[in-house]
Write a structure and sequence with these properties.
Layout (H helix, E strand, L loop, with lengths): L1 H20 L6 E5 L6 E6 L14 H6 L3 E4 L8 H11 L7 H4 L2 H15 L11 H16 L9 H11 L3 E4 L3 H9 L3 H13 L1 H16 L3 H8 L8 H22 L5 E6 L9 H7 L3 E4 L2
Parallel strand pairs: 2-5, 3-4, 3-5
Antiparallel strand pairs: 1-2, 1-6
Helix pairs in contact: 1-10, 1-11, 3-8, 6-9, 10-11
Length: 294
């Protein structure tokens, strides 16, 4: 409990310091210049309630002015065949089921977590890869923090549906298969380590997620960047390089061509936007003018 109090005071102090220096708390940005058709980029939180769109200044006009949308993936490609493929990625080989790779004590800890969040015994999740279970636990925790979150109304998916209704073309910056491999293709031993750390430090992770959610709700990219780099609970350097920086670089290269074509509304996780290796900085380095929408 003492460690949790220290963590909260530390993160709240970070909020106060960062907020004193961040003047553009913003998750919607305009992209122009360098031959680009006037376009926009929106940072999302994958479990935030859709209602948050109503609090984003200039969102409606920006969205209405665009003729195509690019998300991380085209969710319209989540066909029955792709869903089957996703299940394959999430299922563990017979020799790597949870009961095979976890100790008796670890299974007890996992069981306590699944009983708490799903009201189900851990044995019901035995065929899942540890990373798949970690993902589901993270969604459940985030849903508690974002009390208005509805899994059937996820921001990225809702915006893609709105775009299609408007007659906009919808495309993805990467494939669903690539994301599945990235999320669930790491060694099982690493997945076990991350799952057990998440469960052991549950209160810390919940507090961290709560403050991260507050930062997103305030559209504070500076604070989100600080939290992602938190040495205790943030992302490891490998995760930063793999999940953020490498993808940011690949997306920026694609956008250099896409932005020349027609007014584009880009929708990606907000964590991809800030920092020297964030999409906003990479687009500026490519010669584009990137400004917050007020």
């Amino acid at each position: 409990m003492k460690q949790l109090v220290i963590l909260r005071h530390s993160l709240l102090f970070t909020i106060a310091v960062i907020s004193a220096f961040v003047t553009n708390a913003q998750i919607l940005w305009k992209i122009s210049g360098n031959g680009a058709k006037e376009s926009y980029i929106l940072g999302t939180h994958h479990v935030a309630p859709v209602a948050i769109l109503d609090s984003i200044a200039g969102f409606n006009d920006a969205f209405a002015s665009c003729t195509q949308l690019y998300g991380e993936v085209d969710m319209g490609n989540m066909t029955g065949e792709m869903m089957v493929e996703a299940q394959k990625y999430m299922m563990a080989p017979a020799d790597s089921m949870l009961s095979k790779v976890l100790t008796t004590d670890e299974m007890k800890d996992v069981d306590a977590a699944t009983q708490k969040y799903f009201h189900m015994q851990a044995s019901k999740f035995d065929m899942l890869k540890p990373a798949a279970l970690s993902t589901q636990l993270a969604v459940m925790q985030a849903a508690i923090i974002f009390s208005g979150f509805d899994p059937s109304m996820q921001i990225d998916a809702v915006l893609q549906q709105k775009a299609k209704e408007k007659g906009m073309a919808v495309n993805g910056l990467e494939t669903v298969g690539y994301q599945l491999q990235m999320l669930f293709g790491t060694p099982i031993s690493c997945q076990v380590r991350d799952l057990m750390k998440m469960i052991a430090d549950e209160d810390k992770y919940m507090e961290y997620s709560r403050i991260l959610a507050e930062a997103y709700s305030r559209q504070d990219l500076g604070l989100m960047l600080e939290l992602m780099n938190n040495p205790e609970l943030g992302m490891t350097q490998y995760e930063l390089d793999t999940l953020l920086y490498g993808r940011n670089s690949a997306w920026a290269a694609q956008l250099a061509t896409i932005l020349q074509q027609e007014p584009t509304f880009v929708v990606v996780g907000a964590g991809h936007l800030p920092g020297e290796k964030g999409l906003l900085a990479l687009l500026r380095k490519a010669g584009y003018t990137v400004t917050p929408v007020n």
